[in-house]
Amino acid sequence: MTTAQPTTAQPTTAQPTAVVVDGYSAGNFYPAAFTAAGARVIHVQSTPELIPTMLAPDLTAYAENIVCSDEERLVELLRPYAPVAVVPGQESAVQLADRLSEALGVKSNGTALSAARRDKYEMIEALRRAGVRCAEQFKSDDADLIVKWAQDHGTWPVVVKPISSAASDGVFVCAGAEEVGAAARRVLGTRDIFGSANTEVLVQEYLRGQEYVVDTVSCDGRRYVSGVWKYDKILLPSGQNIYNRDILVSQDEEPVPALIEYIHEVLDALDVRWGPAHAEVIVTERGPVLVEIATRLNGQLNPGFQELCLGNDQAGLTALAYTRPEEFVREYAGRIYRKLRSAYSYNPGTTLDGVVAEVDQDVVARINALPSVFLTSVKYAPGARIRPTTDLLTAAMRIYLTSDDDRQLAADYETARELKDSVYRLA
Predict the structure, then answer these.
(1) What pLDDT is recorded for position 2?
(2) Neighbouring C-beta atoms of residue 72, cutoff 10 Å
(3) Virtual CA dihedral for 126, 132, 133, 136, nearest 10 degrees?
(4) Residue 330 CB coordination number (10 Å)
(5) Is the CB of residue 87 less than 8 Å from the CB of residue 318?
(6) What is the C-alpha separation between 392 and 169, in angstroms, rounded?
(7) Would residue 219 count as lying in a domain?
(8) Over the stretch 251-300, which tens digit does the pLDDT of each residue have?
């Protein structure tokens, strides 16, 4: 049952309860994961209306939806359920989930370093204080001061981005002072993808090297590394570096051991003891350096896809860690993933600009018929406005590919690239 407003309903069974806060995007995979682990799942909607820029939560998948923006009231509404977990369904819910779980006295990363797990400037400064290798940076609400720092830094390019957004929103690689100023003013004049005003902007040194994703799940500080993926990105003329592919890396391939050792240092420095984490790391000449980390699920998650290429998925592992911690520790703690099949998560960009008149289902069917394609997720329906890709959210679609044959996988990826521009027809 889904309710439109907070209720004072009491649990009717001894079944454990898991709470998902703002279950947008990959958070949509939590209900099935916690249900499979034997838990009843409740959703907390922290805003009166759903956030329009995000893939909305499927509220029919929850036993109840509590709509409440008053935290004290929310704690009292949740307390009777004695939840085993309070997890963020997306990045903007990280700090709220930390506060709720701490107030309820349940498994929690706590609030002491909560800001550092969300604010990208505080995140890097927390690493610096802990003696963990990290980037040089500066933040300000004044675009001119951002430009001055970049000029004083003296090494180009630099990266300009919002303090607390996600999905490469508002991230610019700038080759000179004029570009830095324009990027800073652009960020300061907008809202992030969660609807919050960008009141400050962050500038960081440009980290040269290959970028990787490291996904983990923690259970009272005991961790399992659930996957390492190599980023394949495309730099646009605007200076925005957009996602193209995530490529699964074998567990025994370099530089995976160094990445894992470094991520343990990062998680310790940020006091991440429970739940998932999704880290982006660049391997520089001086070693791995964090771009940023989020204590939520990988936004590219698809459980069926991960089951095929990794044998498990981050949402299911998280549910297990909270509901049956002894089993998680026995089966997963201190271990790392094993690559079962080669895999790509492909996010095709687009230069289309207009209103979608039709989705060519024959083209979608041709992509899905490729031997390596697991799923093609089309983002835009007829009548929707499509714009040129500038970040992950504005990618045209998502295509998951996996195969035992690397040549077949590469060939199918190239065919998908050729077909992707024919999927949408504009009015």
Answers:
(1) 38
(2) 9
(3) 20
(4) 9
(5) yes
(6) 8
(7) yes
(8) 999 999 999 999 999 999 999 999 999 999 999 999 999 999 999 999 99
Checking DSSP bridges between strand 172-174 and strand 241-248, what pairing results, if any? Answer: unpaired
- CA distance linking residue 415 with residue 86, whole number of Å: 42
d(CA 202, CA 421): 34
Asked if residue 306 and residue 227 are part of one domain, the reply reads yes
Distance CA 296, CA 28 (A): 12
- Locus of tokens 């008053």: 70
Exposed (0-12), middle (13-18) or buried (19+): which is 375, by Cβ within 10 Å? Answer: middle
Question: How far is the first Cα of the chain from the last one, in angstroms, to the nearest whole number?
Answer: 39
Place of tokens 């709220």: 96
Within a domain: 9 = no
User: Which amino acid would we find at residue 322?
Assistant: Y
Give the residue among 346, 341, 316, 345 at the shortest CA–CA distance from 331: 316
Let me know if residue 53 belongs to a domain.
yes
Cβ-Cβ contacts under 8 Å for 118 (sequence gap 6 or more): 91, 94, 95, 164
Cis omega before residue 371 (within 30°)? no
117-160 confidence digits (pLDDT tens): 999 999 999 999 999 999 999 999 999 999 999 999 989 999 99
Task: Classify residue 197 by its DSSP letter.
Answer: B
Rounded distance, CA 422 to CA 366, Å?
Answer: 11
- Whether residue 402 sits in one domain with residue 332: no
Both tokens of 371, joined, read 């031997």
Strand-pair category, 210-219 with 201-205: unpaired
Scan for tokens 């690493």, then name that residue: 127
The residue segments making up the domain with residue 88 are 17-108
